[in-house]
Amino acid sequence: MVARGSASVFIGQELCQNGQVINILQTMTTDLGAFHPRYNPTWLTGFPWIMKLRMRVIGNYSPQVVQCRRILLEALTPEIDKRRSCASNNDLNWQRPDDMLQELVENATPPPGQDVYTFIMNQLLFLTFASIHTTTENGTIVLYRLLQNPDVLNELLEEQNDVLRQEVFTTIDPDKQQNGGNPSHVFTADRIKKMTKLDSVCREALRLRSQFYELAHTNVTNQNIVLSNGTVIPPDGDVLINFWHNHHNKKEGKYNDVDSKHIDVNEYDDLAEFKPFRYVNTGYPSTKVGDDYLVFGEGKHACPGRWFAMQEIKTIVSVLIRDYDVRAASDIVFPIGSPGLPFGKVTIVKRNIQ
Ligand code: HEM
């Protein structure tokens, strides 16, 4: 669902129907991740330079990567040509697509020696790495929290019903014309935005992600960097932020109460607990980064795709719980450590919706 949803925004309505392309978006990151020495061969982790070189060679020349690039290029080239030709001929039957591919077609500035097709494909590959796997993993975490807390799932169903009911009774719905179906069945961005409990559940589920470290940040200068506590980061040294500590430590964060007064989280002893509605009406949506919420990083390079990712996760969760009766069929376990993805047996039965 994430691969197809993302593809429709990245490469457009037509290409997102291409099964081979979707398959690549779906599997590429995990396939390449499997080459990481963390998995095999682990002894290489003691030799960072060899490790980087190996990953560089795999990233450029392994048969999997070469095949992914070939398939993507073959799919993208005719679409890029078609769009360029329609635009330059002022084709009146052509409607400018509202997707990332179109932005790239119009604004691509490939480096010397690289053709525009390869440049666009590389940009899309980068986007794929940053977006699909991350959104899928975090969406999975939210879903497992709901499976572990069926009462919360039911409350979210009530919330979506309330939002949809209000909309249907109070507005003439444009979706009715576009989708030809029951307007109450469409989760538009505006409707998802009104589901404040759902957003709080997502933030709380991601805060409690059972992982220890944020992505490594490397000192790319050729000088030591001295942190305020005296720690020295040498050139090429990595900094790993202890995500777990920040997300569980009472001193790290502050958030607002309903009246927007600042409350020091020091007052709260419950940060190890999953409290689904902790953030409702606090002014802390699931996309707001901070020292106490490092899911999307922080600062200048905080994830720019987080609004899109949360929109996708919330839409997928909403559709799933509406259309299917999903229940845990065993204990749901949240293992601690990396990657720390939850697991457990689940039954999924299609609901009878009118
Ligand atoms: C739940 C899903 C996602 C998570 C958890 C996530 C997390 C992150 C994190 C931790 C970073 C690094 C921030 C840092 O260096 O401190 C990052 C960077 C980035 N993310 Fe995401 N991301 C998600 C989805 C997406 C999506 C959907 C897109 C694109 C549509 C995206 C695009 C990017 C880009 C382009 C960067 C690099 C930003 C920069 O270096 O300036 N991410 N993301």
TrEMBL record:
Q: Per UniProt, where does heme bind?
A: 303
Q: Identify the domain of life.
A: Eukaryota
Keywords, comma-separated and alphabetical: Heme, Iron, Metal-binding, Monooxygenase, Oxidoreductase
Q: Which cofactors, by name? A: heme
**Any GO molecular function:** monooxygenase activity
Regions annotated as coiled coil: none
Q: Which InterPro entries match?
A: Cyt_P450 (IPR001128), Cyt_P450_CS (IPR017972), Cyt_P450_E_grp-IV (IPR002403), Cyt_P450_sf (IPR036396)
Instruction: Cite the SUPFAM superfamilies for this sequence.
Output: Cytochrome P450 (SSF48264)
> Pfam families from the xrefs?
p450
What protein family is recorded? Belongs to the cytochrome P450 family.
Q: What is this protein called?
A: Cytochrome P450
> What is the organism field in this record?
Phascolomyces articulosus
